[in-house]
Amino acid sequence: AQSVTQLGSHVSVSEGALVLLRCNYSSSVPPYLFWYVQYPNQGLQLLLKYTSAATLVKGINGFEAEFKKSETSFHLTKPSAHMSDAAEYFCAVGGNSGGSNYKLTFGKGTLLTVNP
Amino acid sequence: DTGVSQNPRHKITKRGQNVTFRCDPISEHNRLYWYRQTLGQGPEFLTYFQNEAQLEKSRLLSDRFSAERPKGSFSTLEIQRTEQGDSAMYLCASSQRLAGGAETQYFGPGTRLLVL
Residues 6 to 35 of A: which have CB under 8 A from any B CB? Predict the structure, then answer.
């Protein structure tokens, strides 16, 4: 079974400050890992994904995440927060069926607030 | 690429009534997923299709729930005899199966169900 733990249900930062959202995973097979963002009353938008090609993954809107196998972590960072980054962020681990990821297991999410 | 669409966006119903939701995936995608998201939680996997075949159903999907994907195109999710505990956001996602790769699931805006 796979699982995801997101540390901190709510993170608050000032505009221009570093954003760090934490994600730890559990998986019995090499994982595929994803970060999605959800704005109010909308579906989920993919920020980035880890596919084992490179441990540092760059995504959209200036976000990046680093896969650390020894720590079973995939933390999301952005050097400088913008007001438009305020949203809920979900980390997810992909299943593994025949090498492709099919269903996703999500963490509970982290609500990011950006203060002016 | 017009994205994944879901209808209706909102549904209010009385306990005991039946409801049906529709999902139209991205046209070239052969996989379609249903997830349920309750307040303060991440999405939880319900079921998925590859083309018209329903390949897995979660234990969350009681016998009151049924999903179909006729002809491998759009999908419907029906809930019979709704209960208040069914109140949630129902998310649909689609993807193109990649052999040995981390396919990206694209999410629709969701259908928010409220059972009174």
Answer: 9, 32, 34
- Which residue type occupies B4? V
CA distances from B60 to A95, B45, B85 (A): 17, 8, 12
Strands B111-115 and B10-13, bridge-based pairing: parallel
Residue A95 has pLDDT above 70, yes or no: no
- What are A14-24's pLDDT values in tens digits? 999 999 999 99
**Residues A94 and B45 sit within 8 Å (Cβ to Cβ):** no
Backbone angles phi, psi at B71, to 5 degrees: 65, 15
Is B4 in Cβ contact with A104 (below 8 Å)? no
The tokens of A85 are what?
């980054």
* List of chain A residues whose C-beta atoms are within 8 Å of the C-beta of residue B112: 41
